[in-house]
């Protein structure tokens, strides 16, 4: 796991190595970096704590059988359920990964959990309101953001359903080959039996919730901090003019905005405001690509996903959602924006 | 087994310390009033609440550490999973990742965002660009991007035309000095659709005042109004304050008075500004806070038509308590 992290870190920082050298020459770099870095962490704390707490409560108070009874058996219903779960639990992406990991370990099919991870940060009332406010002049952006996110999640879910089913290790421990997590899985089941066999007093459950929450905070926190670090480096190191100069051709600008969203890793509740500042520079279709792809996949949540799912699944997910968002945003622009 | 519980206790202590550290960092930022440098006021409550959560988790970690120390066997086996990795190097790496932001937070001074970040983020000199105007963003010089943006604008105009009458562009109407425009004339001067209605109403108010002071509360909204209806608002005296921002292309006699507009946190803050033309411009250093009074007019910068102030008075002012401006959700209500 750490290896993966290291390699990703190398790839990402390696590309901007020449800029890294420039950084040290600019006296404003360190203060700017600090402001960005700390602000991303502070902003994410409430959400990650909420997610971690919610996940711990699920772990301690909701039994596996309840989860299994509640999730639809039919794949289409399951995918729809996963993509609309965000309406009920509007968590943002930082809070979502621990919750979904817990749900999958408790027996929710992996494809439904993954659909929730990609759809939840967009298809929820908070993000809709934020997008609508940022694009007050063009509500079609808010509508098409919701629509495209829904479409992409459903199709991705159905593809994953097929793919993951043909895999004998479906919804197994997400970490084949990673010994640590494997242990975790086993240990977890043991403990769970203990918890339920023993007299689970309220006090014990409370303590158990706290214990889970703080452990999980450390597991998720390291990815959050690493993601914030990369994002802050890029935001302070690369100027927007340089970035904007790249996106010129129709398809290329969509791809570029997707890559930009991946790199920026801003929370889905505030990315609409960033996108709005690019109106006039970039086409509506490429802004849509930015708004749909970013919350689904970005540096921060890729690192978090890698901590939970097998690398192969994460790469497949990035590839599938990336392709769908690209095609979808181009089609939406052709059909609805012109 | 001895070693095992010793290392467990070390981990619990370490985690407790880190959690306390983050809680204290938030408390420290709130106490020094510097929290506003990082997050918007509407997020503050949530961040404060998370400090309480972090602190509770820290207390629990210390409690667990004591339990381990006095040898009480862990009766809640749920922490099974999180038995720390045996590799010391890996643990050091992970804990230093957590300690790094803490060290930065406590050791380095908190600073406001200024020119340096504004140039990275790209300043917006024409804040009405979000309203489908063909005017391009101030920060983007290349013609291709503009050409590409144009068909999109036409396209969305066409699609919105099916839902509502197409928005006319403002008509420049010159009146005799002292003459009052008729309602019809006013509507031609300040046309609006559903989305620009509040701006048009505001513009009509501004039109009747000779001197327009741009308030902190609706800074962006006022700049947008000036920019949207620039043809009929030129010649007005405008007063605004902000920090000095420069680009090479501006030359010696021009700079921008700028403010960062923040939505949630500094990572999403964007600089907005108004171009200033003043013969003594070079007397003012980058990032210096000033109040400018000047006459509004039109000019071109990097191939875009933008509004600017021909300044007749510039005053140095102390940096305001809150250096950033925030979207005004009450604007027009």
Automatic annotation (TrEMBL), chain A:
Residues annotated as signal peptide: none
GO cellular component, one term: plasma membrane
The UniProt record lists the keyword DNA repair: no
Record keywords, A-Z: Cell membrane, Membrane, Transmembrane, Transmembrane helix
A Pfam cross-reference name: ArsP_1
Subcellular location: Cell membrane
Keyword Membrane among UniProt keywords: yes
Predominant location category: membrane
TM regions (residue ranges): 37-62, 74-91, 111-135, 147-164, 220-238, 250-266, 272-293, 313-332
Bilayer topology term: Multi-pass membrane protein
Source superkingdom: Bacteria
Family: Belongs to the UPF0718 family.
Designated name of the protein: Permease
Species per Swiss-Prot/TrEMBL record: Paenibacillus sambharensis
UniProtKB/TrEMBL annotation, chain B:
Membrane-traversing stretches: 12-30, 45-63, 92-109
All residue ranges annotated as the DUF1980 domain in the record: 14-123, 191-327
Region Disordered, annotated ranges: 134-171
Keyword Membrane among UniProt keywords: yes
Biased composition, class Polar residues, residue ranges: 156-167
Keywords: Membrane, Transmembrane, Transmembrane helix
Pfam families: DUF1980, DUF1980_C
Protein name as annotated: TIGR03943 family protein
């Amino acid at each position: 796991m750490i290896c993966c992290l290291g390699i990703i870190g190398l790839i990402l920082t390696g590309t901007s190595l020449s800029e890294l050298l420039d950084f040290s020459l600019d006296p404003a770099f360190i203060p700017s970096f600090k402001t960005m870095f700390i602000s991303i962490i502070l902003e994410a704390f409430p959400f990650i704590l909420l997610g971690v707490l919610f996940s711990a409560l699920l772990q301690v108070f909701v039994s596996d059988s309840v989860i299994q009874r509640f999730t639809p058996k039919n794949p289409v219903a399951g995918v729809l359920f996963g993509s609309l779960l965000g309406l009920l639990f509007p968590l943002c992406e930082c809070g979502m990964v621990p919750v979904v990991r817990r749900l999958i370990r408790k027996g929710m099919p992996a494809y439904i959990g993954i659909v929730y991870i990609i759809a939840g940060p967009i298809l929820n009332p908070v993000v809709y309101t934020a997008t609508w406010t940022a694009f007050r002049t063009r509500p079609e952006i808010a509508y098409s953001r919701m629509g495209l996110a829904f479409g992409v999640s459903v199709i991705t879910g159905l593809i994953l359903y097929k793919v993951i089913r043909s895999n004998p290790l479906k919804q197994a421990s997400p970490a084949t080959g990673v010994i640590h997590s494997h242990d975790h899985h086993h240990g977890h089941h043991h403990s769970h039996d203990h918890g339920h066999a023993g007299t689970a007093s309220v006090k014990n459950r409370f303590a158990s919730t706290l214990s889970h929450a703080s452990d999980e905070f450390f597991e998720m926190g390291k990815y959050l901090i690493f993601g914030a670090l990369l994002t802050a480096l890029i935001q302070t190191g690369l100027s927007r003019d340089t970035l904007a100069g790249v996106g010129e051709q129709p398809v290329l600008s969509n791809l570029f905005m997707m890559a930009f969203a991946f790199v920026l890793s801003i929370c889905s509740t505030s990315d609409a405001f960033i996108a709005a500042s690019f109106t006039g520079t970039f086409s509506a279709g490429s802004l849509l690509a930015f708004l749909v792809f970013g919350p689904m996949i970005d540096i921060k949540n890729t690192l978090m996903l890698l901590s939970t799912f097998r690398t192969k699944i994460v790469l497949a997910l990035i590839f599938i959602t990336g392709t769908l968002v690209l095609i979808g945003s181009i089609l939406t622009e052709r059909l609805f924006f012109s | 087994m001895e070693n095992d519980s010793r290392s467990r206790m070390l981990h619990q202590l370490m985690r407790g310390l880190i959690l306390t550290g983050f809680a204290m960092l938030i408390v420290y930022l709130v106490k020094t009033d510097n929290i506003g440098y990082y997050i918007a006021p509407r997020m503050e409550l949530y961040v404060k609440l998370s400090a309480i959560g972090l602190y509770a988790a820290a207390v629990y970690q210390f409690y667990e550490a004591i339990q381990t120390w006095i040898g009480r066997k862990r009766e809640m086996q749920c922490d099974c999973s999180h038995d720390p990795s045996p590799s010391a190097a890996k643990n050091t790496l992970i804990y230093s990742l957590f300690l790094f932001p803490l060290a930065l937070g406590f050791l380095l001074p908190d600073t406001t965002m200024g020119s340096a970040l504004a140039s990275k983020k790209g300043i917006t000199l024409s804040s009405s660009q979000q309203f489908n105007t063909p005017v391009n963003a101030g920060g983007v010089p290349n013609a291709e991007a503009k050409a590409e943006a144009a068909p999109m604008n036409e396209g969305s105009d066409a699609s919105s035309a099916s839902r509502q009458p197409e928005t006319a562009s403002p008509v420049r109407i010159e009146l005799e000095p002292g003459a009052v425009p008729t309602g019809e004339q006013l509507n031609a001067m300040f046309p609006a659709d559903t989305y620009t209605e509040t701006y048009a109403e505001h513009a009509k108010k501004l039109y009747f005042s000779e001197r327009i002071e741009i308030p902190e509360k609706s800074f962006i909204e006022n700049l947008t109004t000036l920019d949207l209806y620039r043809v009929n608002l030129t010649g007005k005296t405008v007063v605004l304050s902000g920090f000095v921002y420069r680009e090479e292309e501006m030359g010696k006699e021009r700079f921008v008075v700028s403010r960062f507009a923040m939505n949630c946190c500094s990572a999403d803050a964007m600089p907005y500004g108004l171009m200033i033309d003043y013969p003594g411009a070079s007397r003012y250093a980058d990032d210096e806070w000033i109040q400018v009074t000047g006459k509004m007019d039109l000019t071109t910068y990097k191939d875009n038509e933008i509004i600017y102030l021909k300044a007749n008075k510039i005053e140095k002012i102390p940096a305001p308590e809150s250096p950033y401006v925030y979207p005004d959700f009450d604007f027009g209500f």
